[in-house]
Amino acid sequence: MNALSSAKTPSLAEIFGNNYQITENEQQVLIKAFSNWQELIRVNTPRASYDDTTGDGVDKFADETLEEIGWNATEFDINYRTLVDILEKECEGTLLCIEQEDPYKFSGLGFLDDNTHAKILFSYCQNEIKKLMSEDPLYTTEKLTDDEKEAAEYFKCL
Q1: What pTM was computed for the model?
Q2: What is the domain extent for residue 58?
Q3: Which of 154, 149, 150, 148 is nearest to 126 (CA)?
Q4: What distance in Å separates the CA atoms of residue 96 and residue 126, rounded to the nearest whole number?
């Protein structure tokens, strides 16, 4: 101890500052970060696997392999939201988010623990595209556009 140091250990609320609301009990600590959300987005976006903080939703993946899957899947109307739902259901990771009920609003960043989960997305898209090409007359091989053919080849459906 000296004259410059405090004799009292600071609380979590003092450490985090005014932009966070801290609720503590014996079993858990709840940190509400809504007031600092924009700063949390700015700091964490460069490390996120995907960004769902805009009104447009997810429109790309940070990982090159996942992005290639997403880009090609859009040719068959498989959107990024569908792919993210699969990742969130099937893969391990962290979702940093806020959610508001009325009116409903969601904003979040997804962080996958392991990008090798691309295999899950590749298989999903491959199965969906094969099914679409066999069942929908608009997606027969002869009627595919050049971009659709390229995507079908990427997913090994041709």
Answers
A1: 0.81
A2: 48-154
A3: 154
A4: 30
